[in-house]
Amino acid sequence: MHVSIIVPSGGAILSSIVGPYKVFSFINEYLMSSGQADAPFYEIDLVGMTDKTHLYGGIFSVNPTKNVEEIRKTDLIIVSTLMGPDMAAEIEKNQPFIPWIRKMHHEKNTEVASLCMGAFLLAATGLLDGKKCSTHWSAADRFRRLFPRVNLVPDCIITEERGIYSSGGSYSFLNLILYLVHKYNGKEAANQAARMFEIEIDRDSQSPFFVLQGQKEHEDLLIKKIQTYIEENYAENISLDKLASQFNLSKRNLIRRFKKATYNTPNQYLQRVKMEAAKRNLEKTNQSISEIMYDTGYNDIKSFRQTFKKFVGITPSLYRNKYGRA
């Protein structure tokens, strides 16, 4: 099975190139040493646009084994992570990969997997239009603005749809690589890799790691004022009627403009702000869960726990055990 790991130009994350290479190479060694294969299962190429790619301002460099124009057929393309404040500019630097990825998928039935913010380059091919995709939670707003036709699900660690895969943020790409190993080589091989690289194999959500960014990368000044009001008064009883009246909008217009600007309804945004406050208190204080519940404007413990788990992915108690101070 031939694997092409893209070595992006410009801003890129070295670990997203080295990580898949190491895991697939380990599987080759494991299958041969255990007598399950006589030759390497994976033929791995690092695919670039130049003979040498410099990363992190030249501190590191990668020597691609093949130029993108040399790869006529491949079974799996790994789209490594791009990095930079202007993702449109990073995509432009890697423009030659776009028609190649598209051609491989359409004409050669090549599967494609994006890692973290490699989703931006994969989305630029159009192959994600109408499909689910994940990326780093911190880049969700930027991604939605560039690729409104993609069904972004940033809480997911892994997505799969018709031979196209994506992973959540940072090192969660290792979960996707294990998922692919499980698919191609079976559960025991994936378990062996999980043990060797100490990867938590059953992670399915990156919601516990979310930090609310404010979702203010838009131009609607009135909605920004409403967001600020919500952030400063989240513990109060903020109703849709109250917001609409206070900011001289109809409820319908408020919901429409708020959702267009933030990709959330006002109530969803309010709940996210409340849950962010609850997370901070669980991390940094010794308050009881009931006290934190009241401080965030809830009166019913069951409702608070359900909402917390919906937005964070785990219960308040488990979140405190994982991330609270000793």
Q: What does this molecule look like?
A:
- The protein is of the alpha/beta class and 326 residues long.
- The chain has 2 domains: 2-209, Class I glutamine amidotransferase (GATase) domain (Rossmann fold, 3-Layer(aba) Sandwich), CATH 3.40.50; 221-323, Orthogonal Bundle (Arc Repressor Mutant, subunit A).
- 47% of the residues lie in helices and 12% in strands.
- It contains 14 helices and 11 strands.
- The chain has helices at residues 15-33, 87-93, 97-108, 119-124, 140-146, 173-185, 187-197, 221-232, 240-246, 251-262, 266-284, 289-295, 301-312, 316-323, and strands at residues 2-6, 43-48, 53-55, 60-62, 66-67, 76-79, 111-114, 132-133, 151-152, 158-161, 164-167.
- A 7-stranded mixed beta sheet has the order 5-2-1-6-7-11-10, with helices on both faces. The chain has a two-stranded antiparallel ribbon with strand order 3-4.
- β1, α1 (15-33) and β2 (43-48) form a beta-alpha-beta unit.
- α11 (266-284) crosses α14 (316-323).
- The chain is globular, with a radius of gyration of 22 Å.
- The N and C termini lie far apart (47 Å).
- The model has no long low-confidence stretch (mean pLDDT 90).
Provide a short characterization of the protein structure.
The protein has 14 helices and eleven strands. It is of the alpha/beta class.
CATH topology of the largest domain: Rossmann fold
Q: Count the helices. How many?
A: 14
Tell me the helix content. Answer: 40-55%
Class derived from helix and strand content: alpha/beta
**Whole-angstrom Rg:** 22 Å
In terms of per-residue confidence, which ranges show pLDDT below 50 for 5 or more consecutive residues? none
Query: Main sheet?
Result: 7 strands, mixed
Q: What is the string of helix and strand elements?
A: EHEEEEEHHEHEHEEEHHHHHHHHH
**Strands side by side in the biggest sheet:** 5-2-1-6-7-11-10
CATH homologous superfamily caption of the largest domain: Class I glutamine amidotransferase (GATase) domain
Share in β-strands: 5-15%
